[in-house]
Amino acid sequence: MKKNTLKLLAAAFIMSTTAVVFHSCSDSDDEELIITNPGSGAASDPNNFKGEIKSGETVTLDATKLYKLTGALKVKAGGTLIIPAGTRIEANGGTSAYILVEQDGKIFANGTATSPVVLTAPAPTPGSWGGLVICGKAPINRGSTATSEVGEAIYGGTVSNDNSGSLKFVRIEYAGAVYTGTKEFNGLSLFGVGSGTTIDNVSMINGTDDGIEFFGGTVNVSNIISVGNEDDAFDWTEGWNGTATNIYTKRRTTGVGNRGIEADNNADNKDANPRSNPTIKNATFIGATSGEADGLKLREGTYASIDNVVLSNWTTGINVEHDQSVTYFNGQNKITKVKFDNVTTKASVKATTGSAAATLLPNTYTEDATATGAGSGTATPTWAAGWAGI
Question: Is 11 part of any domain?
Answer without folding.
Answer: yes
